[in-house]
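Bug: token stream looks shifted between consecutive jobs. Job 1:
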Amino acid sequence: YEVVSPLGAGGMGEVYRARDTKLGRDVALKVLPEGALTDEAARRRFRREADALARLAHPHIATIHDFDSADGTDFLVMELVRGPSLRDEIEEKGALPEKTVVRLGTQLARGLQAAHEEGIVHRDLKPSNVQLTPDGLVKILDFGLAQLLPREAAGEETAPTVTAIGKAAGTLLYMSPEQLRGRGVDARTDLYAAGAVLYELATGQRLFSKPSTAELTEAILNEEPKPPRELNERITPGLEAVILKALDKDPELRYQTAKDLQVDLERLQQRTRSSAVSGLQTSGGGPTSRSHDTHSPRSAAAATADPSAPAPDRTPSPRPLWQHPAAIALLVLAAVAATALVMWNLRPVRGDLVRFTVEVPRKNGWRAGPGAALSPDGRSLAYVSPNEAGEDIIWIRPLDSLTARPLEGTGGAYLPFWSPDGRSLGFFADRSLKKIAVAGGRAETLAEAPNAYGGSWSNEGVILFSPNLRTPLQRVSVQGGDSRPATVLDAEQRHGAHASPSFLPDGKHFIFSVDAAEGFAGLYVGSLDSPDIRRILPIVSPGVVTDDSYILFLEDGLVRAQKLDMQSWEPEGPVFTLGEGAYQEGLPNVYSEAMSLSVGGNGSLAFRQGKANRRRLTWFGRAGASLGGVGAEGSYESPVLSPDDSRVAFGRDGQIWVIDLARGGAEYPLTSGATRAMYPIWSPDGRSIVYPSGPEGSMVLHRKPSNGTGEAEALQGMGSPFSWSAGYVTYFTTHPDTSDDIYVLPIDGDGGPRPFLRTEAIEHESSLSADGKRMAYVTEESGQAEVYVETFPRSGERWRISPSGGCQPIWRRDGRELFFLALDGTLMAVPIQTRPRFEAGDPEPLFQTHAQVWAARNSYSPTRDGQRFLVNVDPEIAVWKTAVVLNWREALADQ
């Protein structure tokens, strides 16, 4: 960990911003103050904080990453929360709007409930220990004084706890009366502190303002706080009642659980006007409360009447409540009301705008990430991640749970999507479109889909899908049968791909992405009843249309929403922003963004998050030792070294760039303009670079001097090049009837391109040896990518190189080794013997590259002697991040 700058300090530790150099992320690093290093009690408390955090995994509690000791200094590594604390918010803004108070309080209660369920009482909750993310998400920090209890005793009193003789643990202003007296603490202690925090948020003033510690202690023990509405008349009686109930000096009359507090705040949030239900829940403390309305001095019913009215008598009724016929009737009514409230909560309601992130472990490869799909009711997320055996499968995670369950029978899955009733999932695996029941069972194959880019399931029993990137969208019945085209590729507009279909609520119309010539690419609408299509937006993005006619799409890393006229198909009105940090490639395209946006019921939204192409070109030795980087972290696509290792060419934002390594790493553009260019390869003498240019699906090969001067020359051939040796450029192109095929182009001689390998299987990533005698390539004929070598021209001799999957083969310049990536990202080296005959030795693993295995082109480039490797390192290789937004329509009102 590299310490960057101080963030703050206090009695429980000093906090620094630091850089995790192994995983390439910013973290918060907390160490004990220098004077506490010899204080064993302080070190035990510090360790207790780590133990407490290790029990917790919740969106509203800062995550612990590590706990260790270096040179006698204990340190704790935590999630870096970049926003202000609640103390900062109060000092800057004073009293916050009630809507904001309720939203923050609800999240605070959720975090406390998670801690209490794990047997952890915070004991030092205060505004400075609650921080906000840039999205406004509450994060509870600093569990240095936390009391760890057996999990089953989370709600029971514990023995007294002190930090020194006669000194109770915590911060005085936020201590509960029982905490001040040194008595045992439980979850209700934290709820008193939560009430004090809510009091400050709602009024802008502290609970008690006293000049001395003695007077403050007396006030906490014996004085009633000033009613919040006297300090801020905009506070509603309902919120005042919630705050005062949390601050009751008698723990038995306070909220009994954080869940009770959360429920009451959610009632306020949903603006439920039923006085019967509101009175029941707010005054009674929820169904798990141990106190009754008649025992509470501050019921919601009293608060919604005259705020100055005297509190009810605390004297208990002489007869048990259940012996009164009137009380029985009231309880029946209350039960009916509570049942009605539960049913109401199952409906889509406008509630709190909530944002959180789900991190999905992944392997090296894009297929393990995109495709997180929300269920139609908005309550569950389906995503793809490896199981214990390392196989990608579908997982189902309820949004109100921290755990997911595997969906067996989905090995090799990618891009899942839900049926309208939420009972089944469609997905792609084994070059096919499949479906499976969410409850489990056998997956059924519906249609061929060798290289799919999205699917959608209509309420009319039709599945629309993109089987590969050179055919129109296809439709098939959910019962199976023959599939047939649902769209038509427009040759004049040079349509290269139709992808990411999404049905509209009517089950007939759908929107999809079209990659085409300049001026024609964008987001289109089509219909099952007609071949006609119409462009809605000039943005190549996945899209979703909601039942209230909003179209959601991605633009410049933002999730956007705009009203859509369902007759003219024209967007109208303002464009709203619903989320930030959406993953998009430097130049949007259908390849990288398929199924990266999903909308569920109840106003839920999910999108893939992350910095697109934030990679680092890094030198490695054969043993995997890092030898330093090239340039800054940024966007690098398909880097390839020049034959003399003095320069590196790569793609960035749709253009070709060159870094001159021999001149201090200076960069210069090889191409410029509106036309897209990518995937550079060098001539054997280093004087020229060949690259494809044009719209996806119809990119023509071009050649240009490598110094960037002169005009580009268009060549015969359309596709993506991989190598240039012995007078030939090798590349792959795609035909609708045979998928990806390998071609060669004589670069200076007569004749046009000709196929080297053209079959029904997918073949790509071809590399011709320097002497022009052997071609290494990747084929998926076995169902997974494997590396083979054949003679060139083909003579029928073929050798399999990869034992269990591989891609991106590259020859060493002298032909004595062939390198490739195993499917887990490990760089492999294969010794090659050519005399008296060709023989390939056993592949030797060199090191784990943490590079993109499924990148369209080189993720690494070897030097001519094969002793060093320039690797395009992906710093986010460990996880995909899916951002989830609940009640996204609330964001519209704030813009």
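Job 2, same session, no restart:
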Amino acid sequence: MIILKFGGTSVGTPEAIVKTVDIIIEASEQKRVAVVVSAFGGVTDALIQIAKAAAAGQPYTEALQKIIRRHCEVWQALLPQKTSSESTIEPLLTELQDIITGISLIREVSPKTLDLVTSFGERLSASIIAQVITARGTHAEYLDARSVVVTDHQFTRALVQKEITYENIQKYFASHPNLQVITGFIGATPNQATTTLGRGGSDYSASLFGAALGAGEIQIWTDVDGVLTADPRKVPDAFLVESLSYEEAMELAHFGAKVIYPPTMVPALESHIPVRIKNTFHREVPGTLINSVPTVSEQPIKGISSMKNIALLLVSGGGMVGISGIAERLFASLAKEQINVILITQASSEYSICLAIERSQAERAKEVIEAAFALELQSGLLNPIKVEDRVAIIAVVGNGMREKPGSAGRLFQTLGKHHINIMAIAQGSSELNISAVIREADEERAIRVLHDSFFFPRKKILHLFVIGTGLIGGALLEQIKNQWAALKEDQTITLRIIGIMNSQGMILNPNGIDLSAWKQTLSAEGLSSSLSTMIETIRSLNLPSSVLVDCTASEEIAAKYEEILKCGISIVTPNKKANSGSLARYQTLKKTAKETGTWFLYQTTVGGGLPIISTLRDLIASGDRITSIEGVLSGTLSWLFHSFTAGTSFGALVKKAKDQGYTEPDPRDDLSGMDVARKLLVLAREAGLQMELSDIQVESLVPEACKHAASIEKFWQCLPQADHVFEERRKNSTMQGKKLCYLASLKNSVATVRLEMVGPEHPCYNLSGTDNLIAFTTDRYREQPLIIRGPGAGAEVTAAGVLADIIRLAKYS
């Protein structure tokens, strides 16, 4: 025999009931089965609210009629051939109405009456399903569990008297060979008062019947594929656990794994009956098997669970040290008030005891402890009782931790690396469970990082928020889309784009944005563009390894970098504004990144995708001394003066460079020399010089007549007026056998940016296209400078450099 139990979602609609009945009939054709069912999804909660509303004199009629209509509609949809006079549910509905009316008249609902009201959910559900199975040709009988399940008088959370209950079940089934459809969740006292077994009690009912009948397996059918390694709503990469021990299942259930009701395991464990979790809507999935001997896994743990709405109480003081009976008095006082302790830890010095309880009981627990230790508190032997009420418990569970050392170390290292503070920790001698108390705000992030660390130790997931979708940002998103599969497979790196923002709007999706259609999504579903909203969203999502990718040239965004880094969010950017602003801000950003353990990567601020900054850092880190830096740091200006030959117009070349995407959005930013000056300033600061932008001598190439142009359009109109000036300088350089180069130079702490003539002996003489060239002269590279050369302009190469920074962050963070 097997026991099949179906939860509320499995019987929530006529369509779901049809699937459920299909499973029952198919199973009954193979062996004898008994079926335990829950109330229709949401009905129990609704009945509780209706009863309380009636007792409080509040409106309840509409809600009650909604429940009545729902059951009648299901009956009519599944059993249309039966008339209302044949309905087995009408007497139940009438009785329910009468009881609710009585509650409204006396203005009171006791726990005993509430149990009676909530029992109607299962009674109605089981009645309908038994009739549907019979109508399909398999004779089924409705079994009201109150006739066999005997409990004590603890209403809403009754305890089952197993010995007499098992005897009743065995006698009943011996004389009833037909398929039984049993009401879960409910029982009755010896004097026939209706009781309920606590929320999730239908699973417990199934386990009781299975144990009493010696079933070969208990199957819990629900709306998930089985027990997952973590809550999939919090960890998108959670996956199915094929097998668990009873102990592992109970630990996970205790700490919040909703798919398992903790008491379910006890009768099954006592009788050594396997329990299988299955999905009514994905019958082909094997589910999770819970038994005495789970399959061996390479992973030391089976799952990560959590509990929120927890409070942590600290009892401490010198009066506890060496005094016997303190713990006994503490827990006895709490037990007397029925306050359940979830977790306990005590310092070896005996100076303090930490205990975790449900937040709703925190103030009462504090009062109880203060009363129990009033004399010690008054005399100063104990410190005032402290309560931390915004905490959560993270539990890492698995039998494998016994054999594989280092699990606790990995937990501490992972949480520490992501700046998640542990407030208390507990581990049993069985090494089955390590539980840590953390801030509630860190709960979801903690689960994610621990899941990645234990189940995907070689995999790194970055959550990216991209601001700016122009030439560079657009190219970056395209490159990530094209490279995504290769990164995930070859380098075990997963890049999830969580947010995209431009000046027109923004889109946010905690589970990742589909890059094949991001433009359409942004256009159709985008929110109003707001930098503050984006930053607040990044902060509130609190995703591990969050990275802001700033692909703009915005000073407004750069001004927010410090705030972003302080939130534990890394930054990757080609935006030069932050590091070329004030020296104080540059130093603050570097210091903040170091203190917060975040990454601030800006390789592409100088030279696009060229490894200029990293090379400079390597030289300095290895002990070399920089004596001079010189080169062409603008791909735009490199291309302009390489292309500036006889017969060409300088103004026309600038327009062509703009059309080909070589210039900044406003070409005056290139021609002014300030873009090059900012790059040189970044290099100077990286080399250790405390320099401001105003310390750099800059020759602007913006013609005098164009400097005050009111718009870009006006600039284009007046630019040709200066063609003769640039032509004169070109002729002069050609006559001397030289070429024009817009050079950045740093020598003897003097920084200049200007248009110069260079001869064939100069490394920049043979530059072509948009090439940048930087020459580092150092103590080691004294006779021949270290030269880096390559394309320094263009969205593709810059975006590639940004992507390289992102990958570097993933590998080494």
